[in-house]
Amino acid sequence: MTAMEPGASSAEAGPPTVSRPEGGRLAVAVVNGSPSRRSKTVGLTELISEVLADVLAEDGIEVEMSRIDVYGLGPGLNGAREREDVSEAAEAALRRVETADLVIAATPVFRGSYTGMFKHFFDLIDQYALANTPVLLAATGGGEHHALVLEHAMRPLFGFFQAMTVPVAVFASSADFDGTVPLTPRIHGRVETAITDVRPILLGRVRRSASTRPRG
Q1: Rounded average pLDDT over 189-197
Q2: Which residues, in sequence order, are bridge partners of residue 177?
Q3: Domain that residue 111 falls in
Q4: Which parts of this chain are annotated as the region Disordered (predicted)?
Q5: 18 belongs to a structural domain
Q6: 155: phi > 0 → left, psi -120 to 50 → alpha, else beta; which?
Q7: Which end of the chain is more exposed for a tag (fewer CB within 10 A), N or C?
Q8: pTM for this structure?
Q9: In a domain, 15, yes or no
């Protein structure tokens, strides 16, 4: 606990600080539920990834980012009824999500919900693999009313997995983009707020990982 100057109040002392680990790595899995390799959803995940990497770099944390385009996994995923049926590439993608320190889950809104392949991908995730794993939710849609997908579809999905969804989710509408690049300051601010909220949890995961890493 940081000592205060004599006579200083707790308010004058400012908010408590988060202790920083001395370096470390954080595995982040970005799940893109868009059918397009280049889309507004991808643009939003790139913004989130960049801000995350910049914030954690200040803590000496190296971010290992894996982007998973669920539609790009093709028949190796969409032709599988059970986990045993997936291709090696799809299995590797599923494992990256199951072992990630943070999952960024993003989808365009399609008919009021997440896309079909986004749901199918998570249908094949082990039921308990994401328990207590931080998940940052993101979505894109044509208008602001589509933002309801975050609370009415995505958060319940990850509640089933007992994942730790970040309280602040990120939604961007078509008006927030120039092509596929999110430009609205409001979106940038919301991304920064979401990452600020989850940062102490991520630093805690890095510290625990470092403490269990073999030495010598």
Answers
A1: 96
A2: 182
A3: 25-209
A4: 1-22
A5: no
A6: alpha
A7: C
A8: 0.87
A9: no
| pLDDT for 16 | 42
The yes-or-no verdict on residue 54 having pLDDT over 90 is yes
Question: Residue 123 corresponds to which tokens in the numbers above?
Answer: 């249908």
Residues forming beta bridges with residue 28, ordered by sequence position = 65, 102
What is the rounded distance in angstroms from the CA atom of residue 187 to the CA atom of residue 209?
32
Torsion of CA 59, 64, 70, 73, to 10 degrees: 180
8: in domain? no
As for how many domains the chain has, the answer is 1
d(CA 169, CA 158): 13
* 112 has pLDDT over 80: yes
**Residue listed under structure tokens 């319940």:** 156
- State how far the Cα of 32 lies from the Cα of 28, in Å rounded to an integer: 13
Report whether pLDDT(12) > 50.
no
Q: Which residues contact 126 (CB under 8 A, 6 or more apart)?
A: 83, 98
Out of 17-26, 89-98, 157-166, 202-211, least confident range: 17-26
CB contact at 8 A, 101 and 26: yes
Instruction: Please indicate whether residue 37 or residue 169 has the higher confidence score (pLDDT).
Output: 169
